[in-house]
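User: quick one, fold this
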Amino acid sequence: MLITTADAGTGRPRHTHVECRRSGSGYLAYAPDADSPWYEDLLVSPQATLDIDGVPHAAHAVPLEGGERGFSLHLLELDAARGRAIAGQLLVHHGELREALAAARAELDGAPVAGRSGLRRELLGHCVTFCNGLRMHHLREDGAFTAIEKAHPGLAPALSRLREEHETVSRALLDLDALLQGDGEVESAALREEFERIADGLEAHFAYEEANLLPTLRGEGAAAPLSQLGNEP
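Assistant:
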C-alpha cells in the first residue's frame, strides 16, 4: 500500500509502498527494519495518508506492542466531536500558513533593489518551508475529505472544488520555485507579482474552505451557497 508521511527532518511529503494487511476497520503496517524512513516519520508525527484503491484516506498510526516494528493504522471516521476537532485544527493550520506567507512577504518588502543577492536565497528558504508545510496540509486534507464526504454527502461539491484548488495551488508553487531556482536575473517586480498571485489565490482558497466546511464540522448548520463565495485561485 502507498503511504504518505511527513519527512521527520524536512517536513516534505514522503511516499512509500509499505507491506500492510487488513485488521478490522484499519490496517497493520510493518517495517523491515528499525530505521525505515517512513517508520521514523510516524514515530515523530503519527498522521498518515493511505492510498486505498486510488482514494486517499487519513489515518492515525499507533505503534504495535510486543516489540514489533510497525503500526496499527486507524482510518479517520467522523463523528460530532471529531468534526469539531478537525474544524479547530483547520483554523490552526491556516493560521500557521498565513504566518509563513507573511514572513515571505516581509522578506520581499525588504528588497528595494532588483537582484539583491540575499533576496532569492531568503525567499527560497521561506518558500521551501512554506511549500513543504502546504503540501502536507493539502495531502492530509485530501485524505480527511474522504471521511468528511462520507459523513456529510452534501459537502461533495465543495470538497470537489477544494481538491481541484489543491492541484492549482501545487502548480502555482512549482512556478514560483522555478522562478527562484533559475540562473538568470530576476526583477523584484516579477517576484512580487508571482508571489501576490499565489498569496491571493491561497487566501481565497482558505476563505472558501472555512466558509464551506467549518459550519458543518462544528454542527452549526448548512454552509453558504457556492454562488455567494469567492472565485477559485
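User: anything notable?
Assistant: Residues 212 and 223 are 5 Å apart (CA to CA).
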